């Protein structure tokens, strides 16, 4: 066959006798690579949609059926229920070298059973009894916790509140700290001495006073931190005496 018998397409007649078209080949390769890349990206799920979360496998011996997974055991409740233990109250007691500490030491000499820590325990008990009893107007519960003069003042406040149709709400949520600020001994008749100890009490309460229509007059229904100064009094040298509330005021 001679060269005259070869007929090239008209589109290639212009390229005959010229160099090989490498630029077209490179563009074709890039187009194929880009198409493959787009398929890999668009043909798969993205994000968490493409993640299969299987349970962890259970390892069993050959021929044994897979063991059924069980959830971890729940914590066992204590015998006292789910109530959390009461937070520890911070007691602040003056050192024996201070003036107040020296007077507390004298009280220990007057009564061998007296200790500052034991006194603060008694003061805490009185505080926890007086706050809700005063709010509820429970006169019987207040009896014996105060000196006669202080009890009369509390009862007068309860009577005035009742006549005005007001209601007191006092929810004691917790006591943060109790600190002995001052102490004194006052000589009485015979061999008796009256001991007085002033305590600063920091507590968290919901304290609110409402009128006849239930509208708030004073306070708030939110938990609020209160700082109070309570003065406790007791007679030494007489049997059967105990600490009682002698005065109270905001700190």
Can you characterise this structure?
There is one protein chain. This protein has a domain at 90-250: Nuclear Transport Factor 2, Chain: A (Roll). The chain is built from six helices and six strands. The chain has helices at residues 10-13, 22-42, 99-110, 116-136, 139-142, 148-163, and strands at residues 90-92, 167-187, 193-210, 216-219, 224-236, 244-250. Strands 1, 2, 3, 4, 5 and 6 form a six-stranded mixed sheet that branches. It starts with 9 loop residues before the first helix and ends with a strand.
Helical residue percent? Answer: 25-40%
Please report the total strand number as a whole number: 6
Spatial gap, N to C terminus:
122 Å
Named CATH architecture of the domain at 90-250: Roll
Main sheet properties? 6 strands, mixed
In percent, how much strand structure appears in the residues? 25-35%
Strand pairing plus helix content: what structural class? alpha+beta
Point out poorly predicted stretches.
1-16, 38-84
Q: What does the overall shape look like?
A: elongated
Task: Look at the structure and give the CATH class of the domain at 90-250.
Answer: Alpha Beta
Q: How much is the radius of gyration in Å?
A: 44 Å
Number of helical regions: 6
Give the integer mean of the pLDDT values. 79
Q: Using the coordinates shown, work out and report the CATH topology of the domain at 90-250.
A: Nuclear Transport Factor 2, Chain: A
Element-by-element helix/strand order: HHEHHHHEEEEE
């Amino acid at each position: 066959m001679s060269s005259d018998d070869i007929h090239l397409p008209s589109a290639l007649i212009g390229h005959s006798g010229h160099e090989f078209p490498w630029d077209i080949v490179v563009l074709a390769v890039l187009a194929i690579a880009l198409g493959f890349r787009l398929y890999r990206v668009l043909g798969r799920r993205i994000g968490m949609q493409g993640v299969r979360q299987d349970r962890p496998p259970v390892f069993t011996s050959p021929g044994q059926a897979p063991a059924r997974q069980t959830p971890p055991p729940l914590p066992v409740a204590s015998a006292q229920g789910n109530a959390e233990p009461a937070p520890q109250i911070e007691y602040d007691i003056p050192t024996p070298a201070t003036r107040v500490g020296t007077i507390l030491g004298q009280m220990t000499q007057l009564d061998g059973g007296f200790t500052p820590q034991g006194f603060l325990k008694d003061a805490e008990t009185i505080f926890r009894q007086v706050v809700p009893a005063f709010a509820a107007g429970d006169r019987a519960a207040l009896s014996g916790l105060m000196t006669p003069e202080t009890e009369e003042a509390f009862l007068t406040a309860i009577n005035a509140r009742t006549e005005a149709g007001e209601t007191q709400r006092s929810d004691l949520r917790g006591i943060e700290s109790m600190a002995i600020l001052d102490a004194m001994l006052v000589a009485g008749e015979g061999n008796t001495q009256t001991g007085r100890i002033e305590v600063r009490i920091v507590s968290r309460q919901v304290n609110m006073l409402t009128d006849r229509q239930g509208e708030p007059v004073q306070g708030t229904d939110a938990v609020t931190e209160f700082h109070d100064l309570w003065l406790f009094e007791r007679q030494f040298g007489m049997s059967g005496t105990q600490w009682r509330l002698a005065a109270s005021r905001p700190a």
